[in-house]
Amino acid sequence: MKAIIKDPQIKKFCYYGFFKNLKFFEPYLIIYLSSVGLSYLQIGALYAFREAVVYIFEIPSGIIADTYGKKFELMTCFIFYMISFSLFFISSHFYVITLAMLFFALGEAFRSGTHKAMIFAYLEQKNWFEYKTFVYGRTRSFSLIGSALSSIISIAFYLYAGNLKILFAFSILPYVFDFILIASYPESLNERHKVTFSLSDFFRENKRQLTRFLKSKKLIMLTLNAASLDAIFKSVEDYIQPILQLLIIATFEATESTLVVYLGVVYGIIGVISAAGSRNVYKLLNRYSKANLLDLFYKLMILIFSGIALFTYFELRMIIVLLFILSNILIDSRRPVFVDIIGDHLEKDQRATVLSIESQLKSFIVICVAPLSGAIADHFGFTAVFIFLSVLMLILLQFFSVTKLFQKQASH
Q1: Which option is the CATH number for 9-187+212-411: 3.40.47.10, 3.40.800.10, 1.20.1250.20, 1.10.1670.10?
Q2: Residue burial 321-334, b: 16+ Cβ < 10 Å; e: rest
Q3: Which of these, 11, 215, 240, 284, could form a disulfide with 324 (CB 3.0-4.6 Å)?
């Protein structure tokens, strides 16, 4: 594994994740949107709009990556991100924010699945494919270190500028670095199969890839298992911001500066601990199968959300913050396991497409869950939100259990 760690391209994969997660505004997004007068329902609707755009472009983006080149697609995605951050910085008008969400979603759609497919391709080229959990866990840990550092640096940027909007402008620079970094990737990772664009060929390939996917029950169940949990978490992960705001108001002098400092510190802690979890999760594979580990993390997330509902009711906000931190660790540790097990069942030419399908399913669930969660939060409070989500996850796990699927197939 020393050779893997020292490999120059593996280092580039790590740096990519590091710069990608330097989104200095991220710990304060809901606080910022609330400060410009948006309700939780409106914020949920914005999140749903973002995911709807991702949903529409996910599968086409995966096929574009597989057919016309992954490097080009990733470089394009960072252009979309930079446009988004610029719009957030220019105006706080609802319609401009919606447009910013549109470009952010296009960046997400063009990025998701593509870089993972490039990692897979490189590991195959180097005959390191069996170490994919280790490699992906390591690259993801750099992403989480980026998140942690981003949270701390954002405090300094805010204290210097005196407003949250400036954080969107500062977020552009790391994405310029990532654009240049992707351009330096070897052409062997581009995997461009066609030079000219044909709409009929595009739709024919789209249909072929979907047909292959739908014929595999394992792929369907694995993607539904991962997408459902990630989407539910994604719908409410930023709710830690208003909850922490209430904690600060109850404990300290309620100023925006105090809130920014404490949110930055909490997100920094989340990033550091999650990075450690992601980097070391491969060690659990010595004790658990990949399928058992995926379902175990799902069950633990149900317990955590149930705990958040309980302690929100009793207003024990410090415990809620700790549970939010734990939920982030579980999600970030679970992802390398999913990428590993899905990689075991994918053909080389369908990796970006299937990972994009998984992301599309996630987007569809967020479209349904985020506005509903926002409406529940507006009318009934956070306790009701997490009771609803705990019950929903419990039901979904009965249908999407990977362990049960593998046991059934093994018995036949």
Answers
A1: 1.20.1250.20
A2: bbbbbbbbbbbbbb
A3: 240
What predicted TM-score, i.e. pTM, was given to this entire model?
0.79
pLDDT range class, residue 89, cuts 50, 70, 90: very high
Cα-based angle 244, 249, 254 (whole degrees, multiple of 5): 115
The count of residues in the chain is: 412
DSSP for 123-185, written as a single string: HHHTT-GGGHHHHHHHHHHHHHHHHHHHHHHHHHHHHHHSSSTHHHHHTHHHHHHHHHHHHTS
Contact 402, 211 (CB under 8 A): no
Enter the tokens of residue 233: 């978490």
pLDDT at site 410: 61
- Residue linked to tokens 């052409």: 187
Provide the percentage of residues in the chain whose pLDDT is more than 70: 93
Q: Which amino acid is at 349?
A: D
